Amino acid sequence: MPLQCKLFSGDRALQACLTQDSAHITINARGDHVSKIQTALFILNNVSVAADELRTQTYGRSTAAAVLAYKVRRKIVNYSYQRQADNIVGKMTIARMDREMMIAETLPPAPCKPEDRPACT
């Protein structure tokens, strides 16, 4: 089944991640697909990654730490060979992010707080 959220839909690297172990997203990966994962982490877990990783679309240490936090919070562990969450984006992780992003994309935007104005108008 293809990824369905607007953010991930049509991205070949993320779709491959959903179906192929060899396509998992790991440290030092680069590209638009990494940027999409970073965006999802901010939206779903309210975590940000290092500015240089955002600028270069790199799956670096802070992106890996954010992925690990996301997985720990949701208990995403493949118990057939793991005892605890790791920092890679594999089949289970991308599937969960896709489901959560589909929900997030249907929600109305959060109301603007007074301290966020005028940037939030």
What does this entry look like structurally?
The chain has one domain (12-116): Muramoyl-pentapeptide Carboxypeptidase, domain 1 (Orthogonal Bundle), CATH 1.10.101.10. 48% of the residues lie in helices and 0% in strands. The chain has helices spanning 12-19, 32-45, 51-56, 61-74, 91-106. It starts with 11 loop residues before the first helix and ends in a 15-residue tail after the last helix.
List the helices and strands and how they pair.
Layout (H helix, E strand, L loop, with lengths): L11 H8 L12 H14 L5 H6 L4 H14 L16 H16 L15
Helix pairs in contact: 1-5, 2-4, 2-5
Provide tags for this entry.
single chain; mainly alpha; Muramoyl-pentapeptide Carboxypeptidase, domain 1; 121 residues; 5 helices
Q: Helicity range of the residues?
A: 40-55%
What separation lies between the terminal Cα atoms? 38 Å
Shape: globular
Give a count of the beta strands, DSSP E runs of length 2 or more. Answer: 0
SSE-based structural type: mainly alpha
Architecture (CATH level 2) name: Orthogonal Bundle
Radius of gyration (CA) equals 15 Å
Write a brief structural summary.
The chain is an all-alpha fold and 121 residues long.
